[in-house]
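Quick log. Single chain, no ligands specified.
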Amino acid sequence: MIIRRDRSSTHGVVRRIVRRNRPAVGEARPRQVVRRRSPGIGEGVIPATPRARLAWRPSRQLIAGIASLLVASAIIAAGYGLLRSPLFRIDTIQVVGNDRIATTTVVETANLLGANLVTADLAAAQRALYGLPLVASARVERHWPSTIRIVVEERRPWGTWEQAGVDYIIDREGVVIDIGTALPDAPVIRSSEPGSRLIGDRVDYQAVDAAAELFELLPTHLGTTVAEVAFVRGKGVQVTTADGQVALLGDSSSIAYKLAVWAAVAAEARQRHIAYTTIDLRYGNRPVLQ
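-> predicted structure:
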């Protein structure tokens, strides 16, 4: 026997038919044809939006300048380090040419021991060395990496300055370099000045210059030699010849001219049989005989 059941009445639920737009599971989906319009002739393709780029880039000159600055800074730093390095600290000083001046005196006067060889003030050291009485000249040299060489030329004895019974040895510039016995076969200048001299003092340069020229020129102009050169206060230089004649010269200017005037006067005096012992040549071409 067939029995028909009425589900709605059985469960009390009203069913509705729902139409779905979505395909069922396994059902093929309908495809939609879309026509795309291709660009015509002359029409360009719309470019893609470009990516954002940096607006500024450093130039090659700027990069090169920064690199040069870095290299220069490195070199300066390295040089500063070398300057402070003990490698260039002066630990040896060689002194050459000194005979009467002690080596320790030269080293202490230069005051360079322990200084940096690169930055050491050699000019100041040279000036200090010239302050030593016996130094005529001095040369200071760098010898890498840590040595200083000092070449000294000492003053050489030239003549004797006799003052107040004491003999002072002088050089050609009139600097007193020693005290002792007069030098043999060397000019002697006798001074009437009182007092004493110290090593390093300078005597009257006019007298020294005049004596140097007299010893050289007198034999040529007058045929005689110098017996004595004196420095007389208030009168200046006075020379006595080997035959006993005395000439007052004053200062050391125009010694050759004064000797030429003396020679002319001496020749005329011999012709006229005029005897004299002293001639005053301090007034140029107006000599005075006594």
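The mean pLDDT is 85.
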